[in-house]
Design a protein that fits this description.
The chain has 126 residues and is an all-beta fold. Strands 2, 4, 5, 6, 9, 10 and 11 form a seven-stranded mixed sheet that branches. It has a four-stranded antiparallel sheet with strand order 1-3-8-7, with no helix packed on it.
Length: 126
């Protein structure tokens, strides 16, 4: 079992930045790939970014490439999402996810992940 807790969301103006954190407990995530997803009201959950166990491989949704950066600090059992140049269309609940098996890659497919955090709200005003 692993528990994931996101933080760092909030209200920001368009063009601003936020840094989200995902703190894991119950299991070390150092050998696991991790992902960030988001869900806007009335829309399906969509992938945002993923990072491999080593941190050397990352993948991003086209909509956030060049603006968002995923990283990890295994000493803190935490994954981050740095979001720059935010747009109103980035408004959503952002959740991190961990696999239920020893998957080490950077996967943007939600079916890879078993454990999900409750999410943190990000609201970008125009």
């Amino acid at each position: 079992q692993v528990q994931l807790v996101e933080s760092g969301g909030g209200l920001v103006q368009a063009g601003g930045s936020l840094r989200l954190s995902c703190a894991a407990s119950g299991r070390t995530i150092s050998k696991y790939g991790m992902g960030w997803f988001r869900q806007a009201p009335g829309k399906e959950r969509e992938p945002v970014a993923a990072i491999s166990w080593s941190g050397q491989n990352t993948d991003y949704a086209n909509s956030v490439k060049g603006r968002f950066t995923i990283s990890r600090d295994d000493a803190k059992n935490t994954v981050y999402l740095q979001m720059n140049s935010l747009k109103p269309e980035d408004t959503a609940v952002y959740s991190c996810a961990a696999p239920g098996f020893q998957w080490g890659g950077a996967a943007l497919t939600s079916t890879t992940y078993r454990y999900w955090g409750q999410g943190t709200q990000v609201t970008v005003s125009s």
